[in-house]
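Need a sequence for this fold. Nothing fancy.
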């Protein structure tokens, strides 16, 4: 995951929140600290008791001298609610009484007489800078920030929150091998950029045939217009996309359509708005006594502040986050961003960073074991890109690994053949024993769009021209998709790839807002690509031969083919990726009639298939007709 540009975009504001959190209030006398054990049933954050009229509020903050609770229940006084410290010095807690269970209360922690921070475990925050841009249609009746009472991000607690009643409790997740994942950024999917408007597009997605949606990060991140890889609060859905109930409803409705929902989880790093960063910070980076963060990042791809996943505090926090989303939102899987960064082994370049790391493996086995103890069928997907021997160990433990074929597949779609071999899509080349552990894709949020490069840099010969030719470039996309979905194992599509999205990834800045092109669907050429995707996805899902362990292929030249065998049936996918006609010479394994899922049947007199294919031409042949 190469988000170096992303770091440059964010660095100018990386510490605004930390600086604002250093109180501008007058220093007041520090209350005398009492020592007392945590009450039974207390946990990090807020636990309501007495039918919601009381709350036990706690904060994990070792080595602090004093902590007070401030908020609307005590008119933000820094002295009236001093928190007790546990005997081991790690936790601070207090019981607050006389609460109205139906009221939302804004609150913070006032630490060591000079720092105001929000609750790391809260499920909702108020932001004095960004909330004003959230519309009432997206978040009705959003609580007003307590301006003039405090500064910085504040937490919100409420005993009797609106509850969502789940309707689709019997949802069965698709088998890993049959997953077709649609990676989606709520911000750039619909003009309204919220869960409700995205939900309105489910007919489009079910028509495409996908059976999983992977949401780019939806927990609170800095600002509003973000990819979401700058997280700050891990239990709070980002309000810019909608309410907690709206997100739960979105997931539930997806389940009702047979669609799993996978959440992009960012636990490699956090940003300056995070109270966990602010609690142990020297003005430029985390301090050495931070329970969670490294002073300096251990690897070269880090953005924000680097979590130390060998710290017990970080392990506990991470597991708490995972459990929360699994249980409160019925999420079906996590795609862990920059999972290779979960290391304490220092590296200065990617060659070092990707080397086999036993400590990193131990961390991931621990997390995977914890997740599977809660839900054995849960998807654990890693954006890892480490040495193949390390990825094999993780795959053997049941984890799924992202597999980026963008460069080679794009060379093929552009008609440049020297580096067009995308055989890396086959799990056996990774040393894996099961195809279900390798999530192959030609596009992701982090890669240039295939069709942008087709139109900008495509090859040509005579009248066959890819560059600048929309119709031809889209047919090249169709050709590549026929092969992508024929490679055994789970697959992923980046949003609008099925319509040949051709806006440069760096338009408006790499992570900036991109044009939302629903008008593409009305273009006959683009709609034809959508229909082709739907056809290939249907074939993959309905015919187990596309998960066959018996495969052969040649993907290096202009003529490429994949041959899959299962029982008495064989499928051969053949296509010409050159820009001139080429003759295919392929051993089909048997003579006789072969049915073409995208064209006319042929009758071979022998095992040998010898046909001249026009540039961009492809076929999906089988001995037995596919469903």
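Here you go.
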């Amino acid at each position: 995951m190469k988000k170096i540009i992303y770091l440059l975009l964010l660095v100018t504001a990386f510490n605004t929140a930390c600086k604002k959190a250093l109180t501008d209030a007058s220093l007041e006398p520090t209350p005398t600290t009492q020592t007392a054990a945590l009450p039974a049933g207390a946990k990090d954050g807020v636990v309501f008791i007495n039918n919601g009229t009381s709350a036990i509020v706690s904060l994990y903050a070792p080595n602090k001298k004093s902590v007070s609770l401030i908020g609307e229940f005590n008119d933000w006084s820094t002295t009236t609610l001093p928190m007790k410290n546990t005997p081991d010095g790690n936790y601070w807690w207090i019981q607050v009484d006389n609460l109205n269970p139906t009221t939302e209360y804004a609150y913070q922690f006032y630490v060591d007489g000079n720092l105001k921070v929000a609750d790391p475990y809260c499920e909702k925050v108020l932001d004095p800078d960004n909330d004003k841009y959230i519309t009432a249609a997206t978040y009705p009746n959003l609580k007003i920030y307590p301006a003039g009472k405090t500064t910085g991000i504040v937490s919100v607690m409420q005993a009797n929150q609106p509850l969502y009643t789940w309707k689709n409790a019997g949802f069965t997740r698709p088998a890993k091998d049959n997953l077709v994942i649609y990676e989606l950024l709520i911000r750039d999917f619909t003009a309204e950029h919220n869960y409700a408007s995205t939900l309105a597009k489910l007919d489009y997605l079910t028509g495409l045939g996908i059976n999983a949606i992977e949401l780019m990060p939806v927990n609170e991140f800095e600002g509003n217009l973000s990819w979401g890889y700058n997280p700050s609060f891990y239990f709070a859905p980002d309000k810019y996309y909608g309410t907690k109930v709206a997100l739960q409803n979105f997931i539930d409705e997806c389940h009702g359509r047979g669609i799993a929902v996978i959440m992009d989880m960012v636990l490699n790093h956090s940003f300056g708005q995070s109270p966990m960063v602010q609690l142990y910070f020297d003005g430029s980076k985390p301090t050495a006594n931070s329970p969670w963060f490294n002073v300096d990042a251990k690897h070269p791809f880090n953005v924000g502040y680097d979590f130390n996943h060998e710290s017990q505090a970080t392990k506990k926090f991470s597991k708490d986050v995972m459990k929360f989303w699994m249980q409160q939102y019925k999420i079906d899987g996590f795609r862990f961003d920059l999972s290779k960064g979960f290391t304490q082994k220092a590296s200065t370049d990617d060659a070092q960073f990707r080397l086999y790391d036993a400590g990193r493996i131990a961390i991931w086995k621990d997390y995977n074991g914890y997740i599977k103890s809660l839900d054995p069928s849960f998807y654990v997907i890693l954006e890892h890109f480490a040495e193949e021997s390390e990825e094999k160990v993780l795959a053997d433990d049941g984890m799924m690994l992202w597999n980026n074929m963008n460069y080679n597949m794009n060379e093929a779609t552009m008609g440049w053949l020297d580096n067009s071999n995308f055989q890396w899509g086959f799990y056996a080349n990774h040393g894996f024993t099961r195809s279900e552990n390798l999530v192959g894709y030609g596009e992701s949020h982090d890669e240039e769009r295939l069709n942008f490069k087709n139109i900008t840099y495509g090859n040509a010969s005579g009248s066959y021209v890819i560059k600048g030719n929309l119709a031809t470039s889209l047919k090249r996309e169709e050709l590549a998709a026929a092969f992508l979905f024929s490679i055994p194992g789970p697959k992923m599509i980046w949003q609008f790839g099925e319509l040949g999205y051709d806006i440069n990834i760096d338009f408006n800045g790499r992570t900036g807002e991109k044009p939302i092109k629903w008008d593409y669907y009305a273009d006959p050429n683009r709609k034809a690509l959508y229909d082709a995707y739907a056809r290939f996805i249907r074939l993959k899902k309905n015919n187990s031969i596309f998960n066959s362990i018996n495969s052969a292929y040649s993907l290096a030249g202009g003529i490429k083919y994949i041959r899959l065998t299962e029982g008495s049936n064989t499928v051969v996918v053949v296509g010409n990726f050159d820009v001139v006609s080429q003759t295919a010479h392929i051993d089909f394994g048997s003579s006789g009639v072969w049915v073409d899922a995208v064209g006319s049947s042929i009758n071979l007199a022998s095992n040998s298939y010898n046909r001249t294919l026009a540039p961009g031409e492809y076929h999906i042949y089988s001995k037995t007709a596919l469903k």
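For context: The chain has 14 helices and 29 strands.
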